[in-house]
Amino acid sequence: MREYQLNTLKPGENYSAKELDSFVSTTDVILVSSNTSELFSDPDREYKVTMELDGCFEHSSTNGEKQFRNKRVYVVEKT
């Protein structure tokens, strides 16, 4: 098992929910998962990083503006 203190994720690699939880708690990133709200429900479940992006667009429902967030985004799927 890897050390929980990760400073980056690598596309194609698998990580446990425990490792991902530690990563997002200590790093300014966005984590996107098709596993809805169950991402951290099982700490031992494995997830594969399928994509890494430099940022994303966010739409404000308040003022209708779209803004690019220059923040690392990782897409993960449960394995």
Could you characterize what this model shows?
Strand 4 and strand 5 form a beta hairpin. This protein has one helix spanning 17-26; strands at residues 14-16, 30-33, 46-53, 56-59, 66-69, 73-78. The model has no long low-confidence stretch (mean pLDDT 89). The protein is mainly β. The protein has one domain (14-78). It is 13% helix and 37% strand. The strands form 2 sheets. A 4-stranded mixed beta sheet has the order 1-3-6-2. It has a two-stranded antiparallel ribbon with strand order 4-5.
Question: Could you name the key traits of this structure?
Answer:
mainly beta, 6 strands, two-stranded antiparallel sheet, globular
Number of helices: 1
The largest beta-sheet arranges its strands as: 1-3-6-2
The SS-based structural class is mainly beta
Poorly predicted sequence stretches spanning 5 or more consecutive residues: none
Q: Which oligomeric state applies?
A: single chain
Q: What are the secondary-structure elements, in order, as H or E?
A: EHEEEEE
Average of pLDDT: 89
Largest sheet: 4 strands, mixed
Which overall shape is indicated by the principal axes computed on the Cα atoms?
globular
Radius of gyration: 14 Å
Query: What is the end-to-end distance?
Result: 17 Å
Number of strands: 6
Could you tell me the strand content as a percent range? Answer: 35-45%
Helix content: 10-25%
Number of domains: 1
